[in-house]
Amino acid sequence: MVQKIKSQSEMLAKLGIKGLNPMQKEVLQVLKTSEDTILLSPTGSGKTLAFLLPIIESLDPECKEIQVLIIVPSRELALQIEQVVRELGSGYKANAIYGGRAGAKDKIDLQHPPAILIGTPGRIADHIERESFAVKSIRTLVLDEFDKSLEIGFEKEMKAIVWELPQVRRKILTSATEPKSIPEFIGLRDPFYINYLDEKINKLSIKIIKSPDKDKLETLGQLIQKLDGQPGIVFCNFKDSIERVSEYLNKLNINHGCFFGGLEQKDRERALIKFRNGSYHLLLATDLASRGLDIPEIKFIIHYHLPIKEEEFTHRNGRTARMHQSGIAYVLEGAEEKIPNFIEADYTSIQEIDNTNTDTIEFQTLFVSGGRKDKISKGDIAGLFMKEGKLQKEDIGVIELKSDCAFVAINAAKAKNLVKTLDNSRLKKKKVRIKTI
Question: CA–CA separation, 211 vs 199, rounded Å?
Fold first, then answer.
């Protein structure tokens, strides 16, 4: 039997959250009585936590089958939701399955079905067709960022999933933008709308910077150098452009990561880990990174390429100025470019930008070959690094603990000696490899 945490405040405390925002409070109340709900709220407003809390409270601890199915458009969002469920410490099992993941791993996770299964439409539809898991106990279906799943071509798979789940009693749809329509195949019955899209919960400034040349690369380099030390994302329309920009930034000795669909899943995950923990402050990305990623505290975004659609502009901008924080979106305009009508902003110059960044420690990421399944905790890792590695508390940054490994941000100046000292050390009962990535 699952040992549930009775108190919502205890679960929130595990995430370091003192209280819910107005949107989350409303969702918590609505989902107690509403069968079908459509939640519209900006990126970064806390939609995941909003629907997870009431879902967890409604789970049957005696049920040994999947009770909740959450469909998401990307593997990154699947992993993010899985992590949030685990960090809430409810005692219920959650697993993420997605395209590009080894089928053998899915099989292992589904041998003992989780209470909450999260996945991308194609992978979930395939498993349902293969009858890899029982669907009879699934009572709640969440279509998170449902419009994005439809936009990238998953309508057929989503139809197949909904068709095979006639026993579902509650459907929750979420989006960060106003949907043009709700597909009939979802089968909503008098849904309750919760719409916070018009709430002024952020402080976003949009500025246009004019490049003197058709090629905006040099202007981009100057802007990034001016913003040095602040976390931000540069959006490009094509992966080839990211590679070109990356090569240019390397010549300028500007540390950065890349994130786009053509990368191996491992490289994409590590790019986000190093960005989150401050090993680098800049991420070059396609619109794949415009929503559904756990990337906090972004101070700016740069539209290196102009977005083609207004929705793309909105979602890119949604990465910054989140949850009452301020942020700036810079739009680079080439010498022969025309700004789309949906972009309304004042012009500024690089010289007018004020950078008040005060960061002093440069971080580097270490890989540790042990994780949760080895009974290793974040405290165990920090203890080893401080006791045997002679690090101070301030030398250790974010620790991300995975099932079979961990990633640790440490003071870059001390990384080389730490690896030399601690590689092949023993953590709990396991000898672990430690290396820089």
Answer: 34
The pLDDT value given to residue 291 = 67
In this prediction, residue 95 carries a pLDDT of: 96
Rounded Cα gap, residues 9 and 340, in angstroms:
46
pLDDT in tens, 262-307: 888 889 889 999 999 999 999 999 988 876 676 767 889 999 999 8
How far, CA to CA in Å, does 393 sit from each of 280, 361, 383, 398, 409?
20, 13, 10, 11, 12
Which H helix or E strand runs over 5? none
Contacts 24+ apart (CB under 8 A), 126-132: 127/97, 128/160, 128/161, 128/164, 129/160, 132/106, 132/107
- In angstroms, the CA 315 to CA 326 distance is 16
Q: How far apart (Å, rounded) are the C-alpha atoms in residues 282 and 120? A: 27
Domains contained in the chain, CATH given: 8-195 (3.40.50.300), 203-352 (3.40.50.300), 363-436 (3.30.70.330)
What is the model's pTM?
A: 0.66
352, 231 Cβ separation under 8 angstroms: no
> Across all residues in the chain, what is the average pLDDT?
89
